[in-house]
Amino acid sequence: MPVALDELKTVYGIKRAFIVADADSYKNGFVSALDNKLDELSIPHFCYFDIDGMFTASDAEKAAEAALLFEPDAIIAAGRGTAMDAAKLVRLMYEHEDADICALAEEFNDISSREKLFFRLGEKALLVTVPDIDGCAGAVSPYAVFSENDDEKVIADYELMADIAVVDGGLMTAHTKTELIDAGINALVRSVNAYDASDSSEYTDSYAVRSVSELIDIIPGLSDESTGVPSVCAALAEAITMSGIAYSNTSSVVDVDGSAPFLADIISLSAAESEEVCKRYAELAEALSLDGADDKTLCGA
Fold it and tell me: Which alpha helices (DSSP H) does 125-176 contain, by range?
């Protein structure tokens, strides 16, 4: 992270940075390393961290108002997946004050079937993502999730993507074993879903296979002793990031949090319903060099 953020000064000439962080990441010190680096670079910065739980449309408006007052030329997302989504919405509303994010969510919820051009972004502010372990997929995705009247909404467009994504395992060592496993399993769901997507390609497949391979190696070995090891966190973060790249470049949408505990059941049911999906699961099992090559092998893995 320190090496990457040097470019804010030396390459991009950033003068003011607006940090968007979730409350937990601010309180547990995740943002401190970022603050220290910006201080070292003599870049004035302000941190908006009034994000607790699902980010709402009204939250986005308040954060964007704060950004408009501060007038940054860089917006930095720091922490969990919620902060990644929030920062994307803040930049959108900072650069286009008349944007109606609820209307955009209704119109652009399927990235593969957009009929109109989206807002151009990046003319006023660079978007930088510095994710914690469960924000790695969102750091590289073209999606922004928020809620309105207790309904989850998604804005999908490649203009939302970060200009710079910084994945640093050394910042992610404060998690418990359970938190790391949960993040890894969620990424596993994304990767499997991306692999059996109807519009998967050689490019998404390569990221999905590599991610699944890394995750089924890393997750079983996680222990209380390994959670604070930067190299372990870095390996997991990289696998989660690859899952985000695979998932973000297919049109599949899945409720990760709701489906993660039932991944084996989802694989079995999907394989039973579609011969083509069953074939894809067999290909995935073979690519992973698992004993046998079918959907049941994947369930066992």
Answer: 136-139
- Which pTM does this prediction carry? 0.90
User: Would you call 4 exposed, middle or buried from its count of C-beta atoms within 10 A (0-12, 13-18, 19+)?
Assistant: middle
Question: What is the model's pLDDT at position 226?
Answer: 79
Tell me what pLDDT residue 263 has. Answer: 72
Cα separation, 212 vs 185, in Å, equals 10
- Within 101-142, strands assigned E span 126-131
In 3D, which of 174, 177, 85, 84 has the Cα closest to residue 131? Answer: 84
**Which amino acid is located at 183 in the chain?**
A
**Beta strands of 107-219 (E only): which ranges?**
126-131, 143-148, 151-156, 164-165
User: Which sign, positive or negative, has the C-alpha torsion 231, 235, 241, 242?
Assistant: positive
Q: Which residues contact 61 (CB under 8 A, 6 or more apart)?
A: 93
- Nearest partner of 243 among 287, 286, 212, judged by Cα: 212
Tell me the CB-side half-sphere exposure of residue 293, using CA atoms within 13 A: 9
Alpha carbons 119 and 161: distance in angstroms, whole number: 12
Q: Cα(162)–Cα(140) distance, rounded to whole angstroms?
A: 7
d(CA 102, CA 243): 27
Can you read off the two tokens belonging to residue 147? Answer: 């809620």
User: For position 254, what pLDDT does the model report?
Assistant: 52
The pLDDT value given to residue 54: 81
- Closest-CA residue to 172 (of 228, 243, 240, 241): 228
Q: Which 3 state secondary structure label does DSSP give 287?
A: helix
Which positions of the chain have pLDDT values less than 50? Answer: none
